[in-house]
Design a protein that fits this description.
93 residues; five-stranded antiparallel β-sheet; 2 helices; globular; disordered N terminus
Length: 93
């Protein structure tokens, strides 16, 4: 099946991963595993957050203020992220 990804993009003003933007990509991969988590990418910076509860798992390159913004975006959209995670992984079994 390969390493497909599902991407949600975020506009700073909307702070919602379902919109297009140039700032952050919120994504997960077909070979991902539980617990439900999301990868965040901006340029060469990468982070991984679990979503229940929202907590930083790994960070490579994001500054603390960016991590706070990313965390707040995830918190505001936990249900959307979980819904898409479940739809994707339940359809690919």
């Amino acid at each position: 099946m390969g390493n497909k990804n599902i991407t949600y993009l975020c506009k700073k003003k909307s702070r919602c991963p379902q919109y297009s933007s140039y700032l952050y990509r919120f994504q997960f991969y077909s070979n991902d595993h539980t617990p439900i988590h999301v990868h965040v990418v901006k340029g060469r910076s990468k982070a991984k957050f679990n979503i229940f509860p929202v907590e930083l798992v790994d960070n490579k390159g994001f500054k603390p203020q960016e991590l706070k913004l990313i965390e707040s975006i995830i918190e505001e959209n936990v249900e959307i992220i979980a819904q898409h995670w479940n739809m994707f992984f339940n359809n690919n079994k």
